[in-house]
Amino acid sequence: MTEAPVRKIIHVDMDAFYASVEQRDDPALRGRPLAVGGSSLRGVVAAASYEARVFGVRSAMPSSVARRRCPELLFVKPRFEVYAAVSRQIHAIFADYTADIEPLSLDEAYLDVTVDHRELGSAKAIAEEIRARIKSVTRLTASAGVSYNKFIAKLASDQNKPDGLCVIPPGKGAAFVASLPVKRFHGVGPVTAAKMSRLGIETGADLRNQSIEFLRAQFGSYAEYLHRAARGIDERPVRSSRASKSIGAERTFERNLFTPDEIDAALAHVATTAWARAERKQARGRTVTLKLRDSNFHTITRARSLGEPVASEAEMLAIGRLLIAPELPVAGGIRLLGLTLSSIVRGHEQVQPGLPLIMTE
């Protein structure tokens, strides 16, 4: 038997995507602190430019807080249809290099380039060419991480932002993870990072020194992920949605969401991303599923099925709002939201009418 080849994974992440699109399209905004989102007292920041991030402005932050941190902050209304169009351009570039593409949102994706279809010689060379083409086509910059698994590739893409590239080969993965603060690990939000700090766990090396029994006692089912991550282990494949039974999107937030306005803004963002993916696949679905995870990593799903496919992004969002309403408020806040379409039909496939129902699990 022959061993499977070491995977070559690229994680591509656009730099301050929404804000960068706005600065690209309006020269007056370039070089200035910018927030995409509502400027009212109850508004929420959907995205922030790097000039705004210097002042501590972040996505999902109430606009009133953002303005206090940066009095000169400029606000622009989001143009999700424009962001979706740019995203389609970017994903068309990805498709020239591999069919194994796993989108995470409008502005980031995993690519498995273990097979070098264009014979460029290395995953690094592929990442460099992809970044150059994105800049040429969209006039926007992307950062990329290249490694042997998804976990490290995602960490690497953030290492040299903006407009950066970072390559972590297999022999250096564990050391790279050990050197990083645990708050940078995907899935470790502020609440978990604070708990780890109280336990004396600040870096990947600190986490690796903990036994699996200790991690289980402190973090429950999340312990297995943390134990593997601290050792640079991630065996998840890149999952293309070519034949998906469902199409959706989810987002983990830098800080937990509490207020109705920020939760609704986040839900709208997720709906836009999910619908853009469905549009790319020319797919529709009869079932909308809401995924919600609280600060204690307790996850619930709520779903509603219709007699006919969901007709629009607005309808998908409306169903999401109906599903989330009975769950609010969430003690400790919301750390993750997701929306998914299932019971998928593509193109001109016919749907057998069904009875509307609500499912919970």
UniProtKB/TrEMBL annotation:
Q: What class of enzyme is it?
A: transferase
Designated gene of the protein: dinB
Instruction: List, separated by semicolons, the cofactors it needs.
Output: Mg(2+)
Q: Report the residue ranges that make up the UmuC domain in this protein.
A: 9-189
Q: What does this protein do?
A: Poorly processive, error-prone DNA polymerase involved in untargeted mutagenesis. Copies undamaged DNA at stalled replication forks, which arise in vivo from mismatched or misaligned primer ends. These misaligned primers can be extended by PolIV. Exhibits no 3'-5' exonuclease (proofreading) activity. May be involved in translesional synthesis, in conjunction with the beta clamp from PolIII.
Q: Does the keyword DNA damage apply?
A: yes
Fetch the CDD domains from UniProt.
PolY_Pol_IV_kappa
Gene Ontology CC terms, in alphabetical order: cytosol
Where is the protein localized?
A: Cytoplasm
Name a single GO biological process.
error-prone translesion synthesis
The note describing how and how many cofactors are bound reads: Binds 2 magnesium ions per subunit.
- Asked if Transferase is a keyword of the record, the answer is yes
What terms describe the molecular function in GO for this protein? damaged DNA binding; DNA-directed DNA polymerase activity; magnesium ion binding
Q: Which family does it belong to?
A: Belongs to the DNA polymerase type-Y family.
What organism is the protein native to?
Sphingomonas palmae
Cite the InterPro entries for this sequence. DNA/RNA_pol_sf, DNA_pol_Y-fam_lit_finger_sf, DNA_pol_Y-fam_little_finger, DNA_polymerase-Y, DNApol_IV, IMS_HHH_1, Rev_trsase/Diguanyl_cyclase, UmuC
**Protein name in the entry:** DNA polymerase IV
Q: In this UniProt entry, which residues are annotated as the site Substrate discrimination?
A: Y18
